[in-house]
Amino acid sequence: MTADKGELILKLRGVSKQFGAVTALKDIELDVHAGEVVALVGDNGAGKSTLIKVLAGVHQPTEGTIEWCGKPVSLDSPGTALELGIATVFQDLALCENLDVVSNLFLGHEINPWQLDEVQMEVRAWTLLRELAARIPSVREPIASLSGGQRQTVAIARSLLLDPKIIMLDEPTAALGVAQTAEVLNLIERVRDRGHGVILISHNMEDVRAVADRIVVLRLGQNNGVFTNETSHQELVAAITGASENSVSRRMARKQEEAV
Ligand SMILES: Nc1ncnc2c1ncn2[C@@H]1O[C@H](COP(=O)(O)OP(=O)(O)OP(=O)(O)O)[C@@H](O)[C@H]1O
Ligand SMILES: [Mg+2]
């Protein structure tokens, strides 16, 4: 199902989400192409999770348009988003500790009319994990005995079984050490190289700059710039915290206050 590399898959314009009196998203623009990693960064409460949930069909936008491969769509349920080709790996991973890797990979894929037996599932699991160069010792290992990085790998592999055009990862390296983080970042690159569009939420600017092709900053529910992995750490932090909302307008606001 993956698209041609570079094809514009997802296009959001003017997307807003209101929760009662709270404006969680306002006038959001976002483009995601096939074969690119778009990092979504922003401070706590910036609207990242809300945006991911809109794209996952969990929340419906109050305003705005979402285009999928050039056509307007309504992501009115998680099933609709999944069927269209938007997969989400939420932060809690939702893996079953007591089940093995194969069982976890195929769990919850009820929308796919597969009739695979255990042997076929095991072969398919190995093939996919090998393709992703994943370091999983055995697909019959229970999840409980895997490391954080290996669990993340299983969760990402599971979402790839439905061959989504876009995969969204919410803080995939948040709980990981240095080596496991590197493993997951490599995996993200391999997912991108397979032609999937990746939306990566992360608070870690080093991770973001290591893998992202574009870095979209959200601040207080609004777009606050699109950057590249060549953007300096300071510049990114400034966009995230609002220090870059140009100092001229802040100086003018101060002058106005003084004049009153
Ligand atoms: N279901 C909800 N009902 C009411 N307000 C909500 C709801 N979900 C999110 N919000 C509000 O929307 C704003 C954006 O929240 P969101 O969780 O999207 O931020 P975030 O960027 O994911 O933050 P964090 O980095 O802390 O996860 C916040 O002010 C939050 O309180
Ligand atoms: Mg969040």
TrEMBL record:
GO function terms (MF aspect): ATP binding
Key words, A-Z: ATP-binding, Nucleotide-binding
InterPro entries named in the record: AAA+_ATPase, ABC_carbohydrate_import_ATPase, ABC_transporter-like_ATP-bd, P-loop_NTPase
Domain ABC transporter intervals: 10-245
Domain of life, per lineage: Bacteria
Keyword Lipid metabolism: no
PANTHER family membership: CARBOHYDRATE TRANSPORT ATP-BINDING PROTEIN MG119-RELATED, SUGAR ABC TRANSPORTER ATP-BINDING PROTEIN
Protein name: Sugar ABC transporter ATP-binding protein
Species in which this protein is naturally found: Marivivens donghaensis
